[in-house]
Amino acid sequence: MRRRRIAHGDGRSHGLSELSAALCPKGQRRAPGGMTMPTTATRRIQTLLGGTFQKCESSSLRMEKLVILEEDDRKKTEIQRICDCANKHALVEGVFRGRSLPGAALMARTLQSRLIINQAGGILENAGLCLHRNFGVAMIPGSAVKGIARAAAIEKIRAAAADTKPGLLLQTALAFGWCESDWLEKRQNGRYISDFAFALEPQALNPVWEEVALKLMSCFIAPRAALNSGRPWKSLPNFQGLVAFLPALPLEKPTLVVDLVNCHHPAYYGARGNGEAQDTENPIPNFFPAVEAGACFEFCLAPVSRPLPGLPDGLKAPELVGFARQCLAEGLEARGAGAKTNAGYGWFAEDPERTRRMEEEKEKAAAEKAKADELAKRPPEIREADRYLNSLGNNNPGRIGTLKGQMAKIAQLEEAEQRNLCLVLKDLLPDIWKQDVADAARAKGADDKKGGKAFKRVNAVRPVAEKLGVELP
Question: What is the pTM assigned to this prediction?
Answer without folding.
Answer: 0.75
